[in-house]
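tokens incoming
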């Protein structure tokens, strides 16, 4: 599958704010829409445990098809067949290929962002800031490496699917807001550089966590030992924050539920 450049999100309209991507037209070479054949009928969605399991099978199957064929060449009939269903059954759960793709992208994004909730923002953790950052980066890179094939497709589709891009933007905006709150907490405890604008710092560091693994695992622009990559990215984070070396251990404001 040919890889395309990463789609960046933009900072603008005031310091420390993140604004949605512009709606600039993107040239298309062909129509990628694959909506249901009868527009007047809406999918009822799962109403039972069995229905939920079937929907989950379709999402899993769709992810595999998108990874193998890319978005443009993926066919609903192939997704249904991979899930062990008829072509018509697909439309009971999803209206289009675009809709199931957005659900695949949302699930992958949730997995990649899980270390934020499980490690960095864990209120029960006794680990210090450096340890939390290191562990979160390690888990994030492991997940990104595992999901590299679908991430390449997601980055491509985000260029022309405004709805998919908007959904990703809202999730990322939420994560960046939480990171900004953690940076403020570290500043209040005197552990990092108080000259940093928390929103801008969160946006800059957040973009690094997405662009760095994309260059590494998707585009193959460079390669290195995995543990060394984790250590180097962690070092960049703590140096960028101005984290005091004496706070790199378990000491720190862990009781606050943030870094």
């Amino acid at each position: 599958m040919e890889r395309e450049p990463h789609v960046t999100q933009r900072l603008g309209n005031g310091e420390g704010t993140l604004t949605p991507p512009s709606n600039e037209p993107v040239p298309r070479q062909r129509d990628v829409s694959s909506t249901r054949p009868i527009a007047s009928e809406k999918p009822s969605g799962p109403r039972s445990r069995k229905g939920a399991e079937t929907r989950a099978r379709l999402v899993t199957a769709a992810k595999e098809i998108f990874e193998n064929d890319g978005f443009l060449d993926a066919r609903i009939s192939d997704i249904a067949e991979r899930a062990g269903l008829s072509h018509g059954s697909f439309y009971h759960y999803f209206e289009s290929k675009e809709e199931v793709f957005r659900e695949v992208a949302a699930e992958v994004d949730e997995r990649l962002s899980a270390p934020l909730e499980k490690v960095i923002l864990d209120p029960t953790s006794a680990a210090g800031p450096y340890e939390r950052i290191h562990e979160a980066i390690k888990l994030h890179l492991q997940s990104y490496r595992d999901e590299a094939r679908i991430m390449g497709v997601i980055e491509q589709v985000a260029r022309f699917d405004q709805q998919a891009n908007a959904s990703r933007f809202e999730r990322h905006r939420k994560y960046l807001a939480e990171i900004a709150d953690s940076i403020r907490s570290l500043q209040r405890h005197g552990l990092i550089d108080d000259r940093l604008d928390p929103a801008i710092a969160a946006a800059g560091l957040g973009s690094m966590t997405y662009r760095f693994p994309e260059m590494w695992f998707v585009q193959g622009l460079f390669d290195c030992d995995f543990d060394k990559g984790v250590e180097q990215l962690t070092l960049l984070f703590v140096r960028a924050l101005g984290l005091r070396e004496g706070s790199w251990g378990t000491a720190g404001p862990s009781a606050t539920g943030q870094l």
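note: Confidence is low (pLDDT under 50) at residues 1-21, 23-33, 250-258.
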